[in-house]
Amino acid sequence: MAEIVRCGWCGTDPLYVKYHDEEWGKPVYDDKTLFEFLILEGAQAGLSWITILRRRDGYRQAFADFDVEKVAAFVEADVERLMNDAGIIRNRLKINAAINNAKLFIGIQKEFGSFADYMWGFLPNKKPILNRVKSLGDVPPRTEISDLISKDMKKRGFKFFGTTICYAHMQATGMVNDHVEGCISR
Questions:
Q1: Burial (Cβ within 10 Å: 0-12, 13-18, ≥19) of residue 2
Q2: Could you confirm whether 120 is annotated as catalytic?
Q3: Of the candidates 55, 3, 44, which has an alpha carbon nearest to the alpha carbon of residue 171?
Q4: Per the residue annotation, which of 36, 41, 120, 167 is the catalytic one?
Q5: Catalytic residue among 9, 23, 29, 49, which?
Q6: Across the strands, what pairs with 129?
Q7: Which of these is catalytic: 9, 19, 23, 29?
C-alpha cells in the first residue's frame, strides 16, 4: 500500500489535515468564502493558522456567518461585543480592520462586479498558478503578485493585508497551488 503524501505543514492534527485535504489550494470564486478568508487571514497576523482554524466556528458566529453586508454595518456596540467574545482573537485593531475591510470589500464588488473578479484579475488569464514545490523551503512568503494586490488593497484602505498575508490568502483560496509535488491534494 502506497504511503499518503501530504504537505508537512499540516502535521497530524485532524482539523489541519481536513483543511489541507479539502480547502487549501483549491480555487475559490465565491465572494462569501473570499470574505471569510479575508477576515480569517487578517485575524491570523502574528499568530499560527491552526490557532485561527480552531476558532473558525467562533468567527462564523461572531461575524454574522461572514455576511459582508452585516459585518460592514457593525457599530461600536458590536466591537465591544466582539472584544468580549472568547471564540475569536480579541484584538481591537483586528476587529476594527475586519469591519473596515467589509465596507471596502463591498466597494470592490460594486467596482468590479465581484471581489473574485478583482482578485483573480491579478493573475495571468485569471488562472491559478501551479508552483513547483519540492519542499516547504521552496514556498515563498510573498511574490510580485502578492506585492501588487497588497499594495492596491492598502491604497484602497484595507488593513491587516500586507503582502505575506495576501500570499497566504492566495494559497488558501487556490490562486496559487503550493502543495508539494506528490501531495494527495496537488
A1: exposed
A2: no
A3: 44
A4: 41
A5: 49
A6: 176
A7: 19
Place of cell 480555487: 27
- Catalytic, 16? Answer no
Q: Measure the CA–CA gap between 45 and 164, rounded to whole angstroms.
A: 9
What CA–CA distances, in Å, run from 2 to 119, 163, 182? 38, 38, 12
Structural Rg of the chain based on CA atoms: 16
- Which of 24, 3, 1 lies closest to 133, judged by CA? 24
- pTM, whole model, 2 decimals? 0.95
Torsion of CA 73, 81, 155, 46, to 10 degrees: -150
| Residue 49 among the catalytic residues | yes
pLDDT in tens, 120-164: 999 999 999 999 999 988 999 999 999 999 999 999 999 999 999
**488569464: which residue's cell?**
125
